[in-house]
Amino acid sequence: MTVGLLLTLVGLALLDSVNVSTIWIVVVILLAAKRPAATGWAYAVGAFVTFGTFTLLLYFGLNAAETWLDGLTLWLRRILFTIITVVFIVLGVRRFTVSSPGFRRGSYSWFPKQPRVLSRTG
């Protein structure tokens, strides 16, 4: 085993640890390229930089989104409860001001107009 082969295997193992499917791309590059070592290293560095950059962007982007959404959910909750409050106030005012046929203020439809007698005992 030569030092060059060992370094190549270590480089391919490092690249394989980044993404399993990239090992096949590197093998194709090494077989088809005019300068396989330079092309393989350029691909490995490019893959590492790309994955690292997207990982950092995802991490910091989600952190910023969490901060922004935390304030947003508080305001959405406030707006929602304000709308619900206004709707219930309007419904309550309409309930006691609208006069409809058969509607008597102070009496509710679930109360009987006269008490029912279940049995008449003498």
Automatic annotation (TrEMBL):
Transmembrane portions of the chain: 6-33, 40-62, 74-93
Top-level taxon of the source organism: Bacteria
Record keywords, A-Z: Membrane, Transmembrane, Transmembrane helix
Protein name: Uncharacterized protein
